[in-house]
Every structure is written in structure tokens, then in C-alpha cells.
């Protein structure tokens, strides 16, 4: 693939680009347009993705380890099988995206809109999702061990087959449609009729 590692691509329009297997490690991609781009198997480790508009981007099996994103939009993105270990993301939207089989170990996904995301078979060991909205999120066979879900909104989320050993739910809010692998955690807060 194309080698652009360490380049400043800030503000570039890469919409609908075919960058399969590209090396974009360490790139400054702040404000880039990546909507519908195909970055399957690309290396974006350590990339800066602040303010990126990447709706429907394909990042299947991509490497985003250590990447940084504030106020980005990755709605309906395909991140299946991606390496997102140590990813630092906050205050953006990642709605209805596919993280199935992805690795998000020690990732920080705070204050994000992660509603309707599919985390099936994903490994989130040690991740922090503090204050994120996870409405209708699916965690089928996901590893949430030692994950911090404090102050999250888990309305209609399905955690019924997730590993929640050591998971922190302090102040996490859930409703009667939230599915648990057992009883709801004592430190989570039940909300009867949440506004979703």
C-alpha cells in the first residue's frame, strides 16, 4: 500500500479513497474527510484524527493502536477486527459502528456516542468508556474484564453474554430492557423511563 507515515494530511479530503494497506502511522489527519474511504488493513497507529469526518469508513483489520481522536465522527464505520489498543477517543460520535472481533485493550473511549455499536467478540480488557452513551449496544461474548463503565448510559444494551469480571459500573444507568449476564451490578443505577 501507499506509504504516507508521519505526513501532515490535516484537512485533506480523502473521501471514497481506496487506501487499503496504506501506512498512515503517525500522520496528522485532523479535519480530514474520510467518509466512505476504504482503509482496510491500513496502519494508522499513533495517527491524530481530531475532528475527522469518517462516516461509513472501512477500517476492517486496520491498526489504530495509540491513535488520538477528539470530536470526530465515525458513524456506521466498519472497525471489525481492528487493533484499537490504547486508542484515545473522546467527545465524538461513533454511532452504529461495527467493532466485532476488534481489540480495544486499554483504549479510552470517553464521552462518546457509541449507541447501536456492535462489540461482539471484541476485547476491551482494561478499557475506559466513562460517560459514554451505549444505548442499544451489543456486547455478545465481548471481554469487558476490568473495564470502567462509570457514568455510562446502558439503556437497551445487551451484556448478557459478556465477561464483566472486575468491570466498574459506578453510576452507570440502565433500564428494564438492558440485558445482564446475571443480576444488575449493585453500583449501577436503574432508570424507569429514560429519554433515549
Describe it.
The chain is mostly loops and 196 residues long. The protein contains no helices and 5 strands. The protein has strands at 68-70, 88-90, 108-110, 173-174, 189-190. The strands form 2 sheets. The protein has a 3-stranded parallel sheet with strand order 1-2-3, with no helix packed on it. Strands 4-5 form a two-stranded parallel sheet. The radius of gyration is 16 Å and the shape is elongated. 53% of the residues are buried.
In terms of topology, how is this protein built?
Blueprint: E1 68-70, E2 88-90, E3 108-110, E4 173-174, E5 189-190
Parallel strand pairs: 1-2, 2-3, 4-5
Task: Offer a quick outline of the entry.
The chain has 196 residues and is largely without helices or strands. The chain has no helices and five strands.
Amino acid at each position: 500500500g501507499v506509504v504516507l507515515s508521519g505526513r501532515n494530511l490535516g484537512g485533506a479530503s480523502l473521501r471514497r479513497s481506496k487506501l487499503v494497506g496504506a501506512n498512515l502511522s503517525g500522520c496528522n489527519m485532523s479535519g480530514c474527510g474520510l467518509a466512505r474511504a476504504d482503509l482496510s488493513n491500513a496502519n494508522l497507529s499513533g495517527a491524530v484524527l481530531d475532528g475527522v469526518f469518517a462516516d461509513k469508513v472501512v477500517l476492517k483489520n486496520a491498526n489504530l493502536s495509540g491513535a488520538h481522536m477528539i470530536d470526530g465522527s465515525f458513524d456506521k464505520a466498519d472497525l471489525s477486527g481492528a487493533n484499537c489498543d490504547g486508542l484515545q477517543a473522546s467527545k465524538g460520535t461513533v454511532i452504529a459502528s461495527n467493532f466485532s472481533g476488534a481489540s480495544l485493550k486499554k483504549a479510552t473511549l470517553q464521552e462518546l456516542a457509541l449507541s447501536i455499536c456492535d462489540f461482539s467478540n471484541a476485547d476491551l480488557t482494561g478499557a475506559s468508556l466513562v460517560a459514554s452513551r451505549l444505548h442499544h449496544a451489543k456486547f455478545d461474548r465481548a471481554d469487558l474484564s476490568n473495564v470502567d463503565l462509570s457514568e455510562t448510559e446502558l439503556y437497551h444494551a445487551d451484556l448478557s453474554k459478556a465477561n464483566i469480571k472486575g468491570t466498574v459500573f459506578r453510576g452507570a444507568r440502565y433500564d428494564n430492557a438492558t440485558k445482564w449476564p446475571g443480576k444488575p451490578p449493585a453500583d449501577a443505577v436503574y432508570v424507569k423511563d429514560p429519554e433515549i
